[in-house]
Amino acid sequence: MTDAIIIGAGAAGLAAARDLSGAGKTVVILEARERIGGRIFTNHVADVPLPIELGAEFIHGEAQETFAIVEAAALLVYQLPDDHWWSTGKQWRRMPDFWKAQKKIWARVPARGHDISVADFLKRQKSLSPRLKRLAINFVEGYHASHADRISAASMRGTGEENEAPKQFRIANGYDALLEVLRTGLDPSRSVVHLATEVTEVHWKKGSVDVRTRRGDSFHARAAVVTIPLGVWKSEAAIEFDPRLRQKERAVEKLEVGHDVKIVFRFRERFWDPTCNFVHTMDPFLPTWWTTAPARSTLLTGWAGGHAADRLLAANDIAGRALQSLASSFMVNRRKIDSLLDSVHMHNWQADPFSRGAYSYAGVGGEGAHNSLAKPVAGTIFFAGEATTAEETGTVAGAITTGRRAAKQLLAALA
Ligand SMILES: Cc1cc2nc3c(=O)[nH]c(=O)nc-3n(C[C@H](O)[C@H](O)[C@H](O)COP(=O)(O)OP(=O)(O)OC[C@H]3O[C@@H](n4cnc5c(N)ncnc54)[C@H](O)[C@@H]3O)c2cc1C
After folding, report:
1. Ligand 1 closest atom vs CA 397
2. What is the mean pLDDT of the chain?
3. pLDDT tens digits along 165-207
4. 396 CA to centre of ligand 1 in angstroms
5. 395 CB less than 6 Å from ligand 1?
6. Quick one: average pLDDT of 135-161?
7. Span(s) in the chain for CATH 3.90.660.10
8. Strands 288-290 and 299-305: what pairing?
9. CB of residue 11 inside a 6 A radius of ligand 1
């Protein structure tokens, strides 16, 4: 019998499969999409010299698990300048204190007491300046793709404790280069990947799983690793477990799915300072922009999370609305922008049935829920994916770490 069925071939599933097959176990990976990678989705466009990342783009900090792979495979990685600007629509101001300000805000969350939303927490901070409050909202809605009125304040406690700004990196050849390392690391004699294979049911008892797919196939194994995104857990089309996993259902209820829009524009020529990196604004639709600095290119990326993403997604013409925001934040005439526009690249992660959102965050009172979702069941069903870590939620590093953790747990259970 197969040792393990892995549901999902994103970073978590591939990392789990690699470790398991490397340890001599047989694995079958069932992936609903026709490609591997999940929320890593790199487009290589013929005449664009840089990869276009429709999903994950940055390595946040010196993420150990990611760098272990990057360094072993000698991938080319470069560090981004920590250069943040604030645009009022009338002028741009450099923000040398971006991370220091975050530290100051989140250190105020009390260590004990009843959890409240970040929006309520900020309302109570009478001595915090409106600018810092605005920055805090931009951070939770942008960086965490969350809704400020739903994200747990307790889960933000101590965020940005680092004394220095966290370093950010990009993989020069594209994030899919990292996927390729994971994929080629699967032992071909012990692993098989089935694409376009959506799992709909998992029937299980201790030491045995029977996994059924929408196509009507059935796969048997001694154990399963479930790596589906939180949005899929929460959807009507969620995988049915028999017997039900009630503890997981409760954890899923306490977690929230972040929303985002990431839209990449390619222009015929650059109309911004190429050394500038991140631009933050008060724009209600697209409050964050970034360039490809330190690389000089004609690509600009717009990012909206939380409520801004919801507003933008409701627009009839998302790209047109985004260009309008760009014109006002960069103080450039809209007609000029339109005349320079070459191409638009985006993927709607909310509408995608196999992600149904960006990434997870803890809702009010849900501080421990990521860890509950992570707990194995009866030494037979194991859990991985960005929503199963409280420390590295919403990152590729978190996905890899949890995939490796699930593999280790499964190996111990099968020993
Ligand atoms: C727009 C965007 C930008 C991001 N930017 C960054 C960034 O800059 N840096 C960073 O570190 N992280 C970033 N992230 C987050 C990062 O992409 C994710 O945390 C990480 O890729 C998640 O990996 P995973 O394996 O947990 O989940 P996924 O990659 O979602 O993999 C789960 C897999 O399960 C499959 N699946 C779903 N349902 C089923 C089913 N029923 N049957 C079979 N298979 C199924 C899916 O198709 C998918 O391939 C970003 C995410 C988004 C959406």
Report:
1. 11
2. 95
3. 789 999 999 999 999 999 999 999 999 999 999 999 999 999 9
4. 8
5. yes
6. 89
7. 83-166+260-349
8. antiparallel
9. yes
* Highest CATH level, class, for 2-40+175-256+364-414: alpha beta
CATH 2.60.120.400 fits 83-166+260-349, yes or no: no
Atom of ligand 1 nearest to the CA of 384: 26
Instruction: For a ligand 1 pocket test, name from 5, 30, 39, 53 the mutation site with the most ligand atoms within 8 angstroms of its C-beta.
Output: 39
Q: Is 263 in the pocket of ligand 1 (CB under 6 A)?
A: no
Give the atom of ligand 1 at the shortest distance from the alpha carbon of 396. 11
DSSP-H helix ranges across 2-150: 11-22, 64-72, 98-106, 118-123, 130-138
Q: β-pairing, 84-87 with 381-383? A: unpaired
pLDDT, one tens digit per residue, over 108-123 is 998 888 999 999 999 9
Q: State how far the Cα of 247 lies from the Cα of 376, in Å rounded to an integer.
A: 11
Q: Whose alpha carbon is nearest atom 10 of ligand 1? A: 395
pTM, entire model: 0.96
Q: Could you give the residue range(s) of every CATH 3.50.50.60 domain in the chain?
A: 2-40+175-256+364-414
Burial 302-318 (b: 16+ CB within 10 A, else e): bbbbbbbbebbbeeeeb
